[in-house]
Every structure is written in structure tokens, then in C-alpha cells.
Amino acid sequence: VQEPEEKKIALELLETEQAYVNRLHLLDQVFYTELMKEAKTGKTVPEEVVKMIFSNISSIYQFHAEFFLPELRKRMEDWNRNPRIGDVIQKLAPFLKMYGEYVKNFDKAVELITAWSEKSPPFQELIADIQKRKVCANLTLQHHMLEPVQRIPRYELLLKDYVRKLPPQSPDRGDAEKALEMIFMVAKHSNAAIAEMERLQNLWVVYQRLGLEDDIVDPSNELIKEGPIQKISTRNNSTSEKYLFLFNNMLLYCVPKVIQVGAEFQVHLRMDVEGMKVRELKDTEFPHTFLVSGKQRTLELQARSGDEMNAWIK
């Protein structure tokens, strides 16, 4: 007898979950546990570093190994009598918020592995040693660590497929649709958390380049565009190199510093975006020029090309 499509997908979910729990076991019970044991002897790396690398992998492992996988297995064994998995996935969804922390920490974890592998040969040797084992399948620690990052999108795809293949009168329809919506929200939440973190990191880097002027540092600002620009001086018909940072609420008109200690730029002028006007100037002597006039003052600026000028104006 041909198995119904939705059952095939539910079985695939169970199989991938089993493989995933094995991978989490390797990360938590092998890599983390052994690196931690060595760290405690004080020979390889500080314990703090190991904890920072693995973030909350232990909680994630426990949850999948002790709760979700067994529940899913029970469901599939009982499928013919009770063909449903939607309710179990609804129980899973809220716990997936735990992934936010792990995913947010991922880039830093990889940087730490690289940095400490250079600093501490015993640390590098221990990792290499574990990687040689059969259970690692010739893959690196970093590769295994990527798996939890990719798991939520995988649930989303499998569940979408499952809902699509369900017969209209299936007893699981209502639950499965609700579960899909919950997983979708968690996936969105975890992507939004990553995007927000990247935005803040990039903003912080910009603030450092500007020398962290107190009244400029504001976490709610958004950097829209930055780049070099020529300032036209109408008095002596010459141009000088400047640099612009355009935020959602202000334009910073800066001078690159000659001596690169600390900040790269000095802020010469802040212009509020509110009430600012921008228009192209048709200047034969200086092509690609535009005029920015704000409450504070008016600037004549020259871009390197027509495209660049249009990008700034836009």
C-alpha cells in the first residue's frame, strides 16, 4: 500500500529529528563536555571561553532529546490510530525561542574558536582529536555548530509541506495550521533578533569611527548611507575631500582625520533631516553636483559620478 504523502513527511520530520538529536549530543556531550573538562584542569583555555562558545546548547539538547523527539516518536508509532503531529509541534514552538540566544551568539562563537585555536595549541589539538572520530564524519566543529542555526527554517519547510499535503478532512488540519503559524512567528522572531543585533553592531562601529561624540550616540538611529564627497567652495572655485554619514534623523558632514588615532573622522557639522531639501545643480564646471539645504546651512557637494549623485539624492 502506498503511504499517504503527509505520513511520509511526518516520518521525514522524525528521521531528521533523530539525526539532529545525535548532532546536538555530539556538540553538548562530546565537544562541550570534553573541552570543559580540559579547561577545568587549566591547561587549554579559560572555562568562561568554552561557555561562551557553546552558549545555551545544553538546554537545546535536553529539550530535543528528552521531550520533542520522544513525543514525536510516540506519535508516529500510533499514526494509524491517531494520524496527527500538529499538537506536538505546538508544544515545541514556544521552546524554540531558546534558539535566539544561540543564533545571536553564533558568529562570536566561531571567532572565539579561531582565536583560541591560534593562542592555545592544546585547545586546537583537542578539537582536532574529536574531529577525527567517526561520529564527526570528517566535519569541523564549526560545521556541526551551524546545525541548530539551520533547524528552525527546516521545521518551517517540512511543516509547510505537511500542511499542503494534508487531506481537507484530516483531523490534524486545525492543529497543524496553528503549529505552522507559531513556527513561522518564531522564525521571524529569530531573524529579527539577528537583524537588530547586526544593526546595533554596525551602528557602534560607525560611532567609534566618529570618536563617540556623546550627543550622536543613539541606539535608535539608523545609518542609511555613508561615503566620501567633494565639497565645493564657491569662493575660490575649488573642491575639498569630505565624508558624509546620513542617518534617519541627521546628516553628519565630516572631515577625514590625517592622523589615524582613535576616530577616523571629525564631525564638522550636523544637519537635521527634518526640513532638509536636496536638489541637483546643473553646474558645467563641476558635474554631478547637488545642493543640500537644511536649517543649519547649505552645502554644495560633488559626487564622483551621476549614479552616485542620484543615490545620495534618493
Automatic annotation (TrEMBL):
Xref: SMART domains: PH, RhoGEF
Chief place of localization: cytoplasm
Chain ranges of the DH domain: 5-193
SUPFAM superfamilies assigned: DBL homology domain (DH-domain) (SSF48065), PH domain-like (SSF50729)
Record GO terms (molecular function): guanyl-nucleotide exchange factor activity; zinc ion binding
Keywords of the record: Cytoplasm, Cytoskeleton, Metal-binding, Phosphoprotein, Repeat, Zinc, Zinc-finger
GO biological process: cytoskeleton organization; filopodium assembly
Coiled coil regions in record: none
Localization terms from the record: Cytoplasm, Cytoskeleton
Domain PH, chain residue ranges per copy: 222-314
Signal peptide: none
Superkingdom assignment: Eukaryota
DNA repair keyword on record: no
Entry GO CC: cytoplasm; cytoskeleton
Name of the featured protein: FGD2 protein
Organism per entry: Dryoscopus gambensis
